[in-house]
Amino acid sequence: VQLQASGGGLVQAGDSLRLACAATGRTLSGYSLAWFRQAPGKEREFVAALRSGTNRSYYADSVKGRFTIARARDNSDITHYLQMNSLKPEDTAVYYCTVRLNWNVQYYNPAQYYQWGQGTLVTVSS
């Protein structure tokens, strides 16, 4: 499966953005979906995940209450979204979408995901 994140851009603090993840190559039934981000000079970090089956969502403390991960409901190649509200300068990073079959308790660990695509840059100015 090939993944591609889109929807990034330059915004001001307090603004909103919606990122989308497109997947081609196979259907993702039974897959858990997630978003990670990587700021310059930092490790890739967990942002949000959507558990397969239950569709329960999980968030990093830094984004809880501001970001929402959602599974796409239409029949396009888009698999999931990340709605980002009340953006802060510290949210500036390249955002990556990823997937994995089923679920793993270490959903926050990027090593548990084996499909990554090109990310999309989000820049939040103060």
Structure write-up:
The protein has no helices and 11 strands. The protein has strands at about 1-5, 10, 15-25, 30-40, 45-50, 55-60, 65-70, 80-85, 95-100, 115, 120-125. Strands 2, 4, 5, 6, 9, 10 and 11 form a 7-stranded mixed sheet that branches. The protein has a 4-stranded antiparallel sheet with strand order 1-3-8-7, with no helix packed on it. Strand 4 and strand 5 (about 45-50) form a beta hairpin. It starts with a strand and ends with a strand. The model has no long low-confidence stretch (mean pLDDT about 95).
How many helices does DSSP assign? Answer: 0
Major sheet characteristics: 7 strands, mixed
Mean pLDDT: 93
Radius of gyration: 13 Å
Q: What is the overall silhouette?
A: globular
Q: What is the tally of beta strands?
A: 11
Distance between the termini: 37 Å
Low-confidence stretches: none
Class computed from helices, strands and strand pairing:
mainly beta
Q: How much helix is in the residues?
A: under 10%
Strand content: over 45%
Q: SSE order in H/E notation?
A: EEEEEEEEEEE
Write the layout of secondary structure elements.
Layout: E1 2-6, E2 9-12, E3 17-24, E4 31-38, E5 45-50, E6 57-59, E7 67-71, E8 78-84, E9 93-101, E10 115-116, E11 120-125
Parallel strand pairs: 2-11
Antiparallel strand pairs: 1-3, 3-8, 4-5, 4-9, 5-6, 7-8, 9-10, 9-11
List keywords for this structure.
single chain; 126 residues; mainly beta; seven-stranded mixed β-sheet; four-stranded antiparallel β-sheet
Concise summary:
It is built from no helices and eleven strands. With 126 residues, it is mainly beta.
